[in-house]
Amino acid sequence: MNVKLGANDMTFEQLRHILEVAKTKSLTVAANNLYLSLSALSQSISTLEAELDVAIFKRSRSGAKLTPEGEVLIHKAEEILSDVDEFKEIALSYTETLYGHIRIATIPGPTTALLSAVFSFKKENPHVTVELQELGPKEITDKLLNEEVDVGLLVAGQTLEVSEERFHFEPLLEGKLVIAVKSDSTIAEQKSMLAEEVCKYPIVLYKDDYLNDALNRLLHAKSNNKFILQTNHTNAITHLVSQGEAITLGLDYSFIDSPGVATVQIDELKDEIVHYGWVHLKKKHMSKTTKAFLRRLNLEIEKRNIQ
């Protein structure tokens, strides 16, 4: 192999280009994600391959596939760019001012505490931008693996993707599964209810594997012909419950700031504790800015005595 060194030495941008193509397996999609023309991206990769005298991708009509040599090089490119991010982080640590962009994905949870953390953190750190989106747990872990978000907020162990091998999980609070009902209904006067009682009411459920599994375990073989729907629209669920149209199953802290909604403990699940916390991809360096935001979020949760 004859590696040519000189004016056209590889750049970090070229490494980012090949990583995006490896992730999407398509030059067209990668070019769109990188805000480049297809010809510019193709030229960037061809120049790098010519400089290294090795084919990184095998191109075809179906897309771009890594060659065996490309598989090795792509892992090294990931390590190099991670080191670059860490280098920048160390340099920025010599100033008190925080910079950067934080991408957060969360399941429905302690919304008020989360939003308060975002607004107060942004006020104190005007050079930081925060992107917040509500997703299901599977979507969150997929985006973490694809490095499309920096940190996820979800319940530990609710999907197989949240593994200790790939992710670091740090609990923020613990909660219990409860039934949410209309606050001035007769059910709300109960301290707890049995699974057989749950079957008597129309149920609307947030679309989530963990909650779906919990409901199935709760009801067992019991028939419930009043099941209305599953949806990711939390406002729609809150509206139906607050109007007495249905009940729902969820984590107790999810309903703290829900007007017109009260929670009732479930006898069969009273000992089941779940933990809500942040999850981060182990192989990706966590920035100083992200760490600072997570400290702020923890303070907001403690301040509101959600525990």
From TrEMBL:
One of its GO terms (cellular component) is protein-DNA complex. Gene3D superfamilies: 3.40.190.290, Winged helix-like DNA-binding domain superfamily/Winged helix DNA-binding domain (1.10.10.10). The keyword Ion transport does not apply. Belongs to the LysR transcriptional regulatory family. GO terms for molecular function: DNA binding; DNA-binding transcription factor activity. SUPFAM superfamilies: Periplasmic binding protein-like II (SSF53850), Winged helix' DNA-binding domain (SSF46785). PROSITE patterns: HTH_LYSR. Coiled coil: none annotated. Keywords: DNA-binding, Transcription, Transcription regulation. Pfam families: HTH_1, LysR_substrate. Residues 10-67 form the HTH lysR-type domain. It comes from Cytobacillus horneckiae. InterPro entries: LysR_HTH_N (IPR000847), LysR_subst-bd (IPR005119), WH-like_DNA-bd_sf (IPR036388), WH_DNA-bd_sf (IPR036390). This is LysR family transcriptional regulator.
